[in-house]
Amino acid sequence: MKNLAKWTVAVGTIVTAVAVSAKDFAIYDMMDYVGKPKDLTSNKISRAMLIYESELVKPDPTGKRKHGVLNLDKVIELARRSKREGYTVISTDIESWFGNKDGQLLSPEELRHDFELMFNIFKHENPDAVISNYGLPTESLSVIRHYRGEVPYQVSYDKWKEFNKRRNQSGAISDYANPVLYIVNPDVKTWEKDVSHTVQEIKNRNPKKKIIGYIWPQYYSAKNSGYFKQFIDPKVWRQMLEISYKYTDGVMIWSDKRDENDKIVRWEDPRVQAIMKETQAFIRAHEKDIKVEGVRKK
């Protein structure tokens, strides 16, 4: 652990994985449908490395920090693996740090320290790494609106802005913004408003930072929404892609393995393939602007 000191210094010049062009829009594959091919780059869908919290965080040996601490040995191992396997774009998924756990709430400074340490380890072991974390630097406005219930939009918006304050410092040291843009119901018009506010919030603080948002081919997993994990209508999905293209620099298409009935979903499922058909139509419509990021050959 003698190298930890140099890993904790501030991140230097950010390495960009994607060259600047007229639009330069990338679609990254983060889907977990059973039987999905590992590499979709032939379909102009890029590869990125997604690393979940369970692989990065362990219980605090002292028992003092309820949110756990970085598993530094595992972080180093994963950083080296990202280099070995040729990944450049990396998204970590640590979510519990942002919430209240057994009465504890991590300060913005604590969050920044730990994210910076983790990011610097990756960038030391893999100098080509471009890294951020799921939900940096903003909470999901659509999800907050849903859980706030029947209140005016401005009320949810103000609460969202308040929640974002704890993430700002960590978002500032990430290589790209990685907001969560899941949709809760078919109201695409209001969802676009959420996306617009999210992008504006990010650009106000980090005007040069690329924005790559998470989207999901299924409605968000809110059990009281009436749309819990149902597959989005392909035409609505196409609208979401076009809106994402309008406001952001790319999307990460995420999924787990199950549908609204807790049934395993396979890649060849007609619902998945209908989504992919619209995704391919979107790619063809914007072919000149689609950037494909694979893994770098050794």
UniProtKB/TrEMBL annotation:
Domain of life: Bacteria
Keyword vocabulary terms for this entry: Signal
Signal peptide start and end residues: 1-22
Keyword Signal: yes
Name of protein: Uncharacterized protein
Source organism of this protein record: Actinobacillus succinogenes (strain ATCC 55618 / DSM 22257 / CCUG 43843 / 130Z)
Lineage: Bacteria, Pseudomonadati, Pseudomonadota, Gammaproteobacteria, Pasteurellales
